[in-house]
Design a protein that fits this description.
Blueprint lengths: L1 H11 L4 H23 L7 E5 L3 H17 L4 E6 L15 E4 L5 H11 L3 E5 L5 H10 L2 E7 L12 H4 L1 H5 L3 E4 L2 H10 L6 E3 L4 H9 L11 E7 L1 H16 L5 E6 L4 H13 L6 E2 L9 E3 L6 H4 L5 E4 L12 H4 L5 E3 L7 H8 L3 E3 L5 H14 L1 H17 L3 H12 L7
Parallel strand pairs: 1-2, 1-4, 2-3, 4-5, 5-6, 6-7, 8-9, 8-12, 9-11, 10-11, 12-13, 13-14
Helix pairs in contact: 3-9, 3-17, 4-5, 10-15
C-alpha cells in the first residue's frame, strides 16, 4: 500500500490538497537532506537515524535523544518523520537534522539510506516501513525499536498482514518493548524472542523532563482545558458548557482542536451559537473572563493543560486514537476522556488510581457535566486526584535511560556513564 501511495500521489495531487502538501513536504525535505549530506555528513562519525511517525512519537523519543547527545557528542543524530505535526518539535531537539521520510518505495528509500549512510536505524514506537527496512538491511545498517507497543486488536496481528510483514519484523536486531504483553505480541509478529527487552515507556520521562525546573502555570479556577479534540468531542464539550452556564455553574473552556485552523474555528463558533454561548475568543486575545477560548496553533497544549484545573484529552472516542494523558497528569490535573482507553496502559493506570475518568458512548454529555461540576466544586477531591496523577507519572520514569542503553548496543564505541 505504501508503494502504491508513492506511485499514485502525483496523479492524485490535482484533486487533494493533502496529497499536494505531502508531495511538497517531501520535495523540500529531499533538497534539505541532500544538501546536508553533501556538506555536513561526516562519514568518519557514526550516524543514528531515528524515525518517529508524528509529534507524539517524537516527543516520546526526546529524552532518549537528549541522553545520547550528552553521552555521545561525536555521533551525528538525524530524525525522520512522516507527519507535518513534527515541525514544531524538531527545532527543540538536540539533533543535527530533521527530515520527512521519502515515499516507501525501493528506489527512494535506497537513495535516502545511501546518502545518509546511517550506522543504525531505530524506530520510535513501531512505525516500520518495509522498503526502508529492506534498504537498511541491504546496506548493513543495524535495526532497532524503542517504546514498541502492539495493541491487542492491532490489524498487524491478523492474516495476511502478519505474514506479509513477518520478514520485516524478523530483521530487527534489538527491540525495547513497553511491557510484557507488547513483547509477546512482537514475537507473534515475527520478532525473535531473544532480541526483545522490556524497558517501559519513555513518555513518562518526556513529560517530567519537559516540565522540570519550569514554574508551574497559574491554573484558572474554573477552566477545563480540552486538547487534541475531534469534532464529535467538541460538540459534547460545547453542549456541556452550555448546560453548565444555564445552571449558573461558573465554567470556562479552553479548546485546542486536533486540527486547528480557520475552518475549525468557524465550525466551533457555529456550535457555540447553537448552544447559546458567547463567541469564542482566540487564545492570544482572550481574558480570564472569556468563557470559551480556542487555540488556533500547534505546540502549546502541553503547557496549557497546567493552566486549567481539569483536563479533557481527545481521541478517546476513536479506537486507538487517544492522545497523551500524561501531559495533563504531570501538572497534577485530573483528566476526563472518552471510552476507548484499552491498549493505553498509562490511561488505565491513571483511571485505576482515580486520576482519570472515562465517558460512556451513550449519555457522554450528561456524565461529562457531572464530573466537570464535581471537580469544579469539590476542591478537595479534585486536588487529591491531581496529586495522584502527578505522583503516578513520576513513579514510572526511567525508561529513557534504558532505551538509550539499547541504542548504544546498536552503535559502535564505548557506552556513556
Amino acid at each position: 500500500m505504501t508503494r502504491l501511495a508513492g506511485w499514485a500521489a502525483p496523479a492524485l495531487a490535482p484533486f487533494s490538497s493533502k496529497v499536494r502538501e505531502g508531495l511538497a513536504l517531501r520535495a523540500r525535505s529531499a533538497e534539505e537532506w541532500t544538501a546536508w549530506c553533501g556538506t555536513a555528513r561526516d562519514p568518519r562519525r557514526p550516524l543514528l537515524l531515528l524515525h518517529a511517525a508524528s509529534a507524539g512519537e517524537l516527543r516520546q523519543a526526546e529524552p532518549v535523544l537528549a541522553r545520547l547527545r550528552r553521552g555521545h557528542p561525536d555521533w551525528q543524530l538525524v530524525v525522520s518523520s512522516t507527519s507535518p505535526s513534527t515541525a514544531h518539535v524538531v527545532p527543540s531537539l538536540p539533533i543535527d537534522l530533521g527530515v520527512t521520510l521519502p515515499w516507501d518505495t525501493p528506489s527512494e528509500t535506497r537513495t535516502f539510506i545511501e546518502a545518509l549512510a546511517p550506522t543504525a536505524l531505530v524506530f520510535s514506537h513501531l512505525d516500520l516501513w518495509p522498503a526502508l527496512v529492506a534498504a537498511a538491511v541491504a546496506r548493513g545498517t543495524r535495526l532497532g525499536v524503542i517504546a514498541a507497543r502492539v495493541r491487542g486488536d492491532s490489524s498487524r496481528l491478523a492474516w495476511p498482514a502478519r505474514q506479509v510483514f513477518r520478514s520485516t519484523y524478523a530483521s530487527l536486531e534489538l527491540i525495547g518493548a513497553i511491557d510484557a504483553d507488547d513483547a509477546e505480541r512482537l514475537i507473534r509478529l515475527g520478532v525473535l524472542a531473544g532480541r526483545i527487552r522490556v524497558l517501559g515507556d519513555p513518555r513518562f520521562d518526556s513529560v517530567v523532563e519537559r516540565t522540570a525546573g519550569r514554574p508551574a502555570p497559574r491554573p484558572h479556577p474554573t477552566t477545563l482545558v480540552a486538547g487534541s479534540t475531534w469534532p464529535d468531542e467538541e460538540r459534547i464539550l460545547l453542549a456541556t458548557l452550555g448546560s453548565l452556564h444555564h445552571a449558573q455553574v461558573p465554567a470556562r473552556l479552553v479548546l485546542a482542536p486536533h486540527r486547528p485552523g480557520a475552518e475549525t474555528a468557524h465550525r466551533i463558533a457555529a456550535l457555540a451559537r447553537r448552544v447559546g454561548l458567547a463567541p469564542p475568543r482566540d487564545l492570544h486575545s482572550a481574558s480570564d473572563q472569556d468563557s470559551l477560548v480556542v487555540v488556533n496553533e500547534l505546540g502549546r497544549l502541553a503547557d496549557l493543560y497546567g493552566e486549567g484545573v481539569i483536563a479533557y484529552v481527545g481521541g478517546g472516542f476513536r479506537r486507538g486514537g487517544l492522545h497523551s494523558v500524561l501531559e495533563s497528569a504531570v501538572w497534577g490535573v485530573p483528566t476526563i476522556t472518552g471510552p476507548e482507553v484499552q491498549g493505553f496502559p498509562e490511561a488505565l493506570l491513571l483511571r485505576d488510581q482515580g486520576a482519570l475518568m472515562t465517558l460512556p458512548r451513550r449519555g457522554a454529555a450528561t456524565t461529562l457535566e457531572a464530573w466537570w461540576e464535581t471537580w469544579l466544586t469539590n476542591t478537595e477531591a479534585r486536588e487529591e486526584a491531581g496529586r495522584t496523577a502527578r505522583r503516578t507519572v513520576r513513579e514510572y520514569t526511567g525508561a529513557a535511560e534504558r532505551c538509550a542503553r539499547l541504542i548504544e548496543d546498536l552503535m559502535p564505541g564505548p557506552t556513556s556513564g
